[in-house]
Write a structure and sequence with these properties.
Elements lengths: L1 H10 L7 H22 L4 H33 L5 H14 L12 H25 L10 E4 L5 E3 H22 L2
Antiparallel strand pairs: 1-2
Length: about 180
């Protein structure tokens, strides 16, 4: 089987020259190495499905990248445009398409940010409730807004604690409500 594949690779060795041809040749070489490694390994079905999914995801990311770059290539292929028209077209494309040099990297910073915001929201909620439940020294309780009885009531510190709790709940809701 390996011999048949190597013969087919040698017969179809007429790769186009240039960077695109070199990239395809390099990819074909890596795929052949991968196939050889898979044939020699003893892999169970679960691990096989996992690797298939990773490879399919890589091809989907590559296709998505090509799709994002297609309008720029179309603008580059249009030779009868003046420099001003090219500049206007490029400016329009850059305004419409948001991407950076790390277009192929998976977005993990969003998950880290959501995790930090989740922890911060929970911490604010817990601190707010702790400020309400735990007794504070009389010098820290500035002013009583509403008295329940002669010794107890709602103080300014309780209202600030409620604001802290509200801020934590707001952070929690906004953190998971982002699209």
């Amino acid at each position: 089987m390996q011999l048949d594949r190597k013969l087919n690779n040698q017969e179809s060795g007429s790769n186009p020259s240039g960077p695109q041809g070199q990239e395809i040749a390099r990819l074909e070489k890596k795929v052949a190495e991968l196939i050889d490694a898979i044939e020699q390994a003893d892999i169970d079905a679960h691990l096989s499905k996992h690797y298939q999914k990773e490879i399919a995801d890589a091809f989907h990311r590559s296709a998505a990248t090509q799709k994002k770059l297609a309008p720029f290539r179309e603008l580059d292929q249009d030779n009868n445009l003046s420099r001003e028209e090219l500049l206007e077209g490029l400016e329009k494309l850059l305004a419409e398409n948001q991407f950076d040099s790390r277009i192929n990297t998976p977005k993990r910073s969003g998950m880290v940010q959501k995790g930090v915001m989740f922890i911060l929201a929970i911490l604010l909620i817990v601190v707010g409730f702790a400020m309400i439940i735990m007794p504070a020294p009389p010098s820290f309780e500035l002013f009583t807004v509403y008295y329940f009885n002669i010794n107890d009531g709602v103080t300014i510190m309780d209202l600030v604690s409620l604001l802290i709790i509200f801020g934590g709940v707001l952070l929690f809701v906004l953190n998971f409500n982002k699209k």
